[in-house]
Amino acid sequence: MLVLLLKVATVFGFFASPVLTHGIVTGIVANGVYTQGWSLDFYYDIVNGESYATTPGWYEDALDSGFIPPSEYQDPNIICHKDGRNANISATVAAGSTVEFQWTNPWAHNIGPMLTYVANCNGDCKTSSASCRREKYDTDECKQIDKSTLEFVKIDESGINFTTQEWAAGVMIANNASWTSTVPESLAPGHYVFRHETIACHGASTLGGAQNYPFCLNIDVTGSGTENPTGTLGVDLYKETDPGIYFNPYVTLTNYTIPGPALWTG
Ligand SMILES: *[C@@H]1O[C@H](CO)[C@@H](O)[C@H](O)[C@H]1NC(C)=O
Ligand SMILES: *[C@@H]1O[C@H](CO)[C@@H](O)[C@H](O)[C@H]1NC(C)=O
Ligand SMILES: *[C@@H]1O[C@H](CO)[C@@H](O)[C@H](O)[C@H]1NC(C)=O
Ligand SMILES: *[C@@H]1O[C@H](CO)[C@@H](O)[C@H](O)[C@H]1NC(C)=O
Q1: Looking at the domain assignment, is residue 261 inside a domain?
Q2: Centre of ligand 4 from the C-alpha of residue 154, in Å
């Protein structure tokens, strides 16, 4: 009964308003293979002790399918969304190839940049065991990778087209709510966390008014690359006063400073 109520509640959006304007990465296509990302239903499955689909999408607790505000840029929640915890399997992609990220469709926020980062786990990205439940995550059995040590390298970024004034988020929406990033060919093979993000900037004229939607997935990179670029800790990616975070988007823009560290394309 409890399960039923919770699921009905999600369907009718009691936890989320308005449900269609927010969301997550629901799936990816890597190496031509579709893999599910995350689903809010999994949260209730876990809480209710039910089994749920095994996916490389990180666990997260954003019950309103919402965002991380700039006031949490120096909080662990910005790393891989609210209470983000690593998945226990990984997808695979070849360096030089692409990962398509599919967002909740339709997606409503068409003002803002799109960004993709990778962080090398320097070992396994997937340490939790099958029996791990949310309330046991801090036990030895369910030891998680320490996301606060992950160093993120930005491999893809897109802001606004100054000719058309179309934002990357608008391109994502027009592309069936999906965004495709290329994995640099020279990136060393290994176990990585991919952090894909859109920053909704419709409220960016107000300090703290931007909305970050980060989402993480475990993806192993294959190939013969040799480069291990230096990354940035998640809590050091952004400041609420960054020029691309706190600005007026309702004028004709002739420059836009894409948030985050420098782009690395190999
Ligand atoms: C991963 O977690 C899921 C959900 O708890 C579980 O069904 C699956 O067996 C686990 N897989 C591995 C490889 O641990
Ligand atoms: C901006 O849009 C114009 C018109 O569609 C296009 O020709 C141009 O290539 C775009 N610029 C960039 C940097 O994508
Ligand atoms: C559009 O994206 C959805 C997932 O959001 C997918 O199921 C569907 O196949 C896609 N449609 C096309 C035409 O690619
Ligand atoms: C545009 O450039 C000006 C001058 O360098 C800077 O002050 C402003 O923050 C930039 N605007 C954006 C949105 O990046």
Answers
A1: no
A2: 21
Residue 137 has pLDDT above 70, yes or no: no
Burial class (CB in 10 A: 0-12, 13-18, 19+), 261: middle
Residues with CB under 6 A from ligand 4: 243-244, 247, 255-257
Residue 251 belongs to some domain of the structure: no
Reported as a pLDDT band with limits 50, 70 and 90, residue 77 is very high
Domains held by the chain: number: 1
Q: Are strands 211-222 and 91-94 parallel, antiparallel or unpaired?
A: parallel
Domain CATH code at residue 131: 2.70.50.70
Q: Model confidence over 220-249: pLDDT tens digits?
A: 999 999 999 999 999 999 999 999 999 999
Cα distances (Å, whole numbers) of residue 265 to 145, 189, 259: 26, 15, 16
For residue 106, say if its preceding peptide bond is cis, omega within 30 degrees of 0.
yes
Residue nearest to atom 2 of ligand 3 (CA): 176
| Residue nearest atom 1 in ligand 4 by C-alpha distance | 255
Q: Would you say the CB of residue 90 lies under 6 angstroms from ligand 1?
A: no
Q: How far is the CA of 1 from the centre of ligand 1 (A)?
A: 25
Domain that holds residue 121: 2-236
Contact 204, 246 (CB under 8 A): yes
Is the preceding omega at residue 18 within 30 degrees of 0, hence cis? yes
Asked whether residue 265 is assigned to any structural domain, the reply reads no
Mean pLDDT of the 22-49 span = 89
Q: How far is the CA of 150 from the centre of ligand 1 (A)?
A: 23
Q: Which ligand is nearest the CA of 113, by number?
A: 4
